[in-house]
Write a structure and sequence with these properties.
438 residues; mainly alpha; two-stranded antiparallel sheet; 2 strands
């Protein structure tokens, strides 16, 4: 049984793992729309506050909401482009109106989507989890180099910081015992940030400028307005997120050694829909399950929901105390990148572990995994190949997780039909031990 201080430390470690992704979206959207520093600061505070509420809603399993899995929710990057496009052609009130209605769509559509989960046998599950990890590795490497687009991208000091962070995490994970081993990522982030401070690249000026206390206000940017095109756009965004979240739920099930039931995924997606509605009300963003936290669970082997509950509480507090939240932003991108290498690699390794239970000597299984991983990685690595397609299809096809997942499901159906074993293709959602043959 973990003590409260240990639960808090582990929860804080989860917050640090997802923090860069959580605050990047409000920075990008706010900057693209020309918002003031005060407005961007509000976006960040509201986002953290709503991230916390969304995570708590996911962990607290009730009749129709919450998967009960140790899943952390954060804002999806898939929504960044559409939100900017909608707000640029109309206004932010229209974007938030679309977010609210698309969240309601997710709540209502989740049960129907759940019926499709029987098309996720072990070979599909393992492939999807592998794709999630592999498509995120370039994100880790970009951060390790200093952050894509940064003036010092690839500078020696960034590579050194990433290496220091990675080595510290590996050393504590390999040589540390008990609690020190479990918080290896947090220690790595702390040591890497300290090293960055002595190199003179950690800037605390933002902490002094941040306000001490802030409360998220409903409809901060005005009463929601509605446009059919904007709503349909955000619905497509959220369908993409539902597919990505399904892969995360399956990966979490694997990491926590439990079979993920269809009802859990449906309830989890309902919670995401409710969280998206909250995001629209508080002028934050659409939410999805974060993959980096799966890697952290795999690495630490701490599977209790109490830790994620603590992470949710911490995010709510950070959303109410911007000055405290600003303190966590001083971590250099390179340090975060060093930690991400371990976490995202762990997700990919988990997917490979699931695939190891599949008989890849059978031609169908081999082709399902090979083609799906190739399509998923190809879509993520060369998204510009879809630039001439309609906007709605670009949103779907430029997500490697979506293209890889669809390829896996379709090929599984084709090979199952060929072998006449479609009735035996009972989905073991956690990638368990039910035989899956194409």
């Amino acid at each position: 049984m973990l003590s409260k201080p240990k639960v808090f430390a582990l929860g804080f470690q989860h917050v640090m793992a997802m923090y860069a992704g959580a605050i990047a979206v409000p920075f990008i959207v706010g900057g693209a729309l020309g918002l003031t520093e005060t407005q961007i600061a509000y976006l960040i505070a509201a986002d953290l506050f709503t991230c916390g509420l969304a995570t708590l809603l996911q962990v607290l399993r009730i009749k129709y909401f919450g998967s009960g899995l140790p899943v952390v929710l954060g804002c999806t990057f898939t929504a960044v482009g559409p939100i900017i496009a909608i707000a640029s052609t109309s206004n932010l009130a229209t974007a938030y109106g679309a977010i609210i209605l698309s969240g309601l769509f997710v709540v209502l559509f989740a049960p129907l989507y759940g019926k499709l989960l029987r098309f996720f046998p072990t070979v599909v599950t393992g492939t999807v989890v592998t794709i999630i990890g592999l498509t995120l590795i370039p994100v880790a490497m970009n951060n390790a180099a200093g952050g894509q687009g940064s003036a010092d991208f690839g500078a020696p000091h960034n590579l050194l910081l990433a290496l220091i962070t990675l080595i510290v995490i590996l050393l504590f994970n390999r040589l540390g015992k008990g609690f020190l081993r479990v918080v290896s990522v947090l220690v790595g982030l702390a040591v890497g940030t300290a090293a960055g401070y002595f190199m003179g690249i950690v800037d605390f000026s933002g902490v002094g400028q941040a306000s001490l206390f802030s409360i998220a206000k409903p409809f901060y940017f005005g009463v929601p307005e509605f446009s059919i095109v904007a709503v349909l756009t955000m619905i497509i965004v959220n369908i993409v997120s539902m597919v990505e979240s399904t892969g995360v739920y399956l990966a979490v099930g694997r990491a926590t050694d439990q079979k993920v039931e269809q009802k859990q995924i449906v309830n989890g997606l309902r919670s995401e829909g409710a969280a998206i509605v909250l995001g629209g009300i508080f002028n934050a963003f659409p939410y999805t399950a974060f993959s980096q936290n799966v890697g952290l669970i795999t690495l630490t082997r701490v599977k209790t929901r109490n830790v994620i509950f603590a992470a949710g509480i911490i995010m709510v507090v950070l959303g109410l105390l911007p000055k405290l939240a600003a303190l966590t932003t001083v971590i250099p991108n390179a340090v975060l990148g060093g930690a991400m290498i371990v976490m995202f690699g762990s997700v990919a390794a988990s997917g490979i572990s699931i695939l190891s239970e599949v008989d890849l000597r059978k031609e169908g299984n081999l082709l399902i995994a090979a083609c799906s991983i190739a399509v998923g990685l190809g879509s993520a690595a060369v998204p510009q190949m879809f630039d001439t397609l309609p906007e709605w299809s670009k949103m779907l096809l430029q997500s490697g997780i979506v293209t890889g997942s669809l390829t896996a499901v379709i090929l599984n159906l084709i090979f199952s039909a060929r072998s006449g074993s479609s009735k035996e293709q009972v989905s073991d959602l956690s990638g368990g031990h039910a035989p899956q043959e194409a």
